[in-house]
Amino acid sequence: MSLPETTTVLIVGAGPTGLAAALSLTHHGCRDFVIVDAVLQGENTSRAIVVHAATLEALDSIGCGPELVERGVKAQAVSIRTQTSELVRAHFSPLINRTPHPYGLFIPQNITEQVLGQKLQSLGVQVHRPKRLVGMKRNERDSLVTDVLFDDGSVVQAKYVIGADGARSTVRTLAGIGFFDPDGEVEAKHNLAQMVLADVIFKSADIPRATLAAVMSPESFFICAPFPTSFNKDLARSGQEITETIFRIGCGVPLSEGPPPSSPPREYLQDLVDRFGPDYMSSNPSVNPSPFVIDQVVWSTRFRTHSAIADRTFTRLGSSEDSPHSVDGGVILLVGDAAHIHSPAGGQGMNLGIRDAVFLGEVVAKHIKISASQPPSVDTDAPLRDFAAARHARALEVIGFTKSLLKVAGAKYDTRMFWWLPISFGTIRDWALWTVGKVTFVQGKLAWNLSGLGRR
Questions:
Q1: Which residues contact 356 (CB under 8 A, 6 or more apart)?
Q2: CB 16 within 8 A of CB 352
Q3: pLDDT higher than 70, residue 415
Q4: Which helix (H) or strand (E) holds 57?
Q5: Looking at 304, 319, 336, which one is the last position of a domain?
């Protein structure tokens, strides 16, 4: 399928954020757009696994929420625990009068992409693949148009370019937009600075059907959750047939141990589970009477985490920070990981990106109508500037929220609060979570923060 020579909007990236942007544009009456992606097909791996209430409400607003809810599983609570005992079970039920979605929707990212992609396809829109962006420049005849160059030699002329192409965004780089930690941190040093994620199958006489659990330990932070077997065919490799329960595990790897292997093998993952996971998942018979032994690795990966945010999420190609209100040059917009990244604590990243994209569709459709009847000016660009400022503020809030979660999760058991007080930060944290976490108000506050409803 060849690319058209011209389009009003070009969306670069067909992950959840890019697909949501395309669906939002369609919903708001803009059909003159093209969506491209650099790879031949989307990844068949789970990656992000929770869609929160605020994101579902945003998708409902463009008619895409019901299909996603139908495919996912409604998680009612998150267990927060040490390796030996549960501290608090954070329920989403306090949200019942505040949202139609008082739960976290448990659904692998590849299924989220599949659902959104099928919805887009049903509306007559196809993703152009593989199309790798290699250059952007102003059109010689019309400075308000961007010539977008691809590695196969094709060129698309677009008035708007939406960068939904991830943390290593080519759109952001070519537009000359900076991308740095808002607090000036150069390198993360917390328990999730480097992480391993994996989907595994355990061999055990007693597989517990546990809820999503977050496990805090002195040197790491561990998450685990069983996938419903209805997800097996979507998580299995091509030609693979799986009937057993697949578990998602995730674990921070202490920096002192060096970087994890690129695709962590079974033995490496088992060691992390035994050292940092809950006792009921240990493979050591002296710790767990029904040893949990990893039998098969379906998928595994490693990555480093840090926080960063784009200097600008709206600009015109060729403008600079010294001329932020320039109205010359094609419109460049960033959403999702291209605009902001942070640690995976609380499962906020993909959710914020999808909401960016849904809200962007309405703003771009509005700007297209304004621009059709008025020449570009500081006033006509106001909706784009306002959108960019609002999303920048939201991203800063989420970065701050995830950093706060990391401080709580990373509290050490070997560090005293004061030299004269023989109690550690970790002990105080555990006591506080166990005690205060049972208060209804605290339950509601935690559910509210995780849901994103206060940071739409």
A1: 17, 335, 336, 339, 391
A2: no
A3: no
A4: helix 53-61
A5: 304
29: DSSP letter: T
pLDDT at 419 over 60: no
My answer on whether omega of the bond before 261 falls inside 30° of 0, hence cis, is no
DSSP 69-115: HHHSEEE-EEEEE-SSSEEEEEESGGGTTT-S--SEEE--HHHHHHH
What does DSSP say about strands 194-203 and 246-252: parallel, antiparallel, or unpaired?
Answer: antiparallel
Q: Mind giving me the DSSP string for 251-296?
A: EE--GGG-PPPSS--HHHHHHHHHHHS-GGG-S-TTT-SS--EEEE
Q: Are residues 311 and 297 both part of a single domain?
A: no
Q: Is 49 exposed, middle or buried (CB count within 10 Å of its CB: 0-12, 13-18, 19+)?
A: buried
- Encoding tokens for residue 189? 């040093």
pLDDT value at position 412? Answer: 63
Quote the number of domains for the chain: 2
CA distance 282 to 384: 52
Query: Is residue 35 included in any domain, yes or no?
Result: yes
Q: What is the pLDDT of residues 246-302, one digit of tens each?
A: 999 999 898 889 999 999 999 999 999 999 998 888 999 999 888 889 999 999 999
CA-to-CA distance for 67 and 405, rounded, in angstroms?
Answer: 31
Predicted TM-score (pTM) of the model is 0.92
Please indicate, yes or no, whether residues 32 and 56 belong to a single structural domain of this protein: yes
